[in-house]
Amino acid sequence: MTGAVVHMERDRKNITFTHSIRTLYSEQGLRFQREKYLPKIEFLRNHFGGRFGEIRLADIGVGYGVFLHLMEKEYGLRRLYGMDPFPDSIEIAGRYTSARIERGDITDEEWPLEKGFFDVITCFDVVEHLTDPGVFFGRAGDYLGVGGLVVVTTPNRDLPYRMRTIPLIGLPDTNPTHINVRESRYWKGLVRRYGFEILAAWKGEHLTHIRLAPKVLAALCSLLRLDHRRLPLVNAFEQSFCMVLRRGAV
Question: What burial letters (b/e) apply to 216-233, b meaning 16+ CB within 10 Å?
Fold first, then answer.
């Protein structure tokens, strides 16, 4: 059809983000994303209480905007912002959220956001792409208001993650931009050096990294009504390491 707008399924210039909107925004995809983000959202709801609906939140590295979409459409937040270095990714995200998304890179000296303004800054599955992940934590503190929180996730580099390269056993990490996947102790030490207090830290999201065993463990945990995030050894199979941080006194 002449003049028809052709929408991209994915941003092929953004090699850090390998999903397509067809998978992310499908019924199954959104269910997966809800499960992924729910523990972080519940922490924020409990922390802010009655203020939760009014918080000012900036998502750094928005991808295709799924987190902002859920916060807006399912939790009613309206004071939402974002930043991403890829213009086509910003265009895709803009179809699914009315959040104000600016073009900018974490390593820029100044972000296109207001300093000292935000109650929450989120950064999901981004810091492992940075040559110097400390840059994010150094910048983020400048944009938080008093008592502001940072919520960050990054791949969980326990033994099952390191087993991903074993043929027929591991599920290979096919993302070549995962250049800084580290153990949880590294991240804890790093954020403290940048003046953050760790309010909560856990291994979570989904059991993965190798074949078969995670599905068996997930089924057993479901049958026994156990939280796999809280079980030693089992939580080594969790996809991500998650932290909620508060800026220390200036």
Answer: ebbeebeeeeeebbebee
